[in-house]
């Protein structure tokens, strides 16, 4: 059997490559029926993520534990999975006010691959390893290797090197019993295929992987204190829409008037978290800043400390 024949035989066992006979007449259906079929089948992505809940939770806990000690979250993948990683990483700074280097997205073939296919990039295991070395990855970092098939050489090379360097290695695959799961400390397998268009893993597999990435980054930020309740209190107000959102967040968190929110944001130099602290506690900006620093940025903890201090010393 030739190498190509062996590969073809192997791929035929993967859900992501399987041809589902239920969709054999897809091209003969009218548009409404095609839309309905895709909508119905799309639920499989959500189900697949729910089935991986335990592994996802373990990954979040591991990422947060390392981030609290100064580590980073690094996504690495090829093709569509790589693009999803870069997308998720790029949304973290504006949403959560995080340093741009806290969550990093790497794609095989570099930035060119974000818009165009880079031939052979995903087959280069050495390049995946080199990307991890170039980032000076270490024991405080968490590396998430993303692959629909679960056998992408570039990603496997990255995960193996991440582990060798002491980082937490997390695999995110679209198939069960994925090859790269063996190279991970935590394996997340969200099998949402077969796809409605056979082998097109940007569909359900991609949706499932995006949902998992949403969970990893968002819940890490929640646990790091960048969310109060369900409000993004560290959002950066970089345009008019976000400035209006900042005001709404202060109002929602405190029940204050729009004028009070505007004044608090001005006193807080635009910091939503600080403004909420000022309105909620009645303390001056310096006291709220001090409480937030002592609470590692957790607003709820800071407010409790300010309330306790005020109760102990009513003169304040």
Please tally the helical runs, counting DSSP H or I stretches of 4 or more residues: 12
Low-confidence stretches: none
Instruction: Output the radius of gyration.
Output: 23 Å
- Corresponding CATH architecture of the largest domain: 3-Layer(aba) Sandwich
**CATH H level, superfamily name of the largest domain:** Glucose-6-phosphate isomerase like protein, domain 1
Report on this model:
By secondary structure, the protein is α/β, with parallel strands linked by helices. The chain folds into 2 domains: about 10-225, Glucose-6-phosphate isomerase like protein, domain 1 (Rossmann fold), CATH 3.40.50; about 240-310, Helicase, Ruva Protein, domain 3 (Orthogonal Bundle), CATH 1.10.8. Helix content is about 50%, strand content about 10%. Strands 2-1-3-4-5 form a 5-stranded parallel beta sheet, with helices on both faces. α10 packs parallel to α12 (about 300-310). The protein is globular and about 75 Å long. The mean pLDDT is about 90.
Short description:
With about 325 residues, this protein is an alpha/beta fold. The chain has 12 helices and 5 strands. A 5-stranded parallel sheet has the order 2-1-3-4-5, sandwiched between helices.
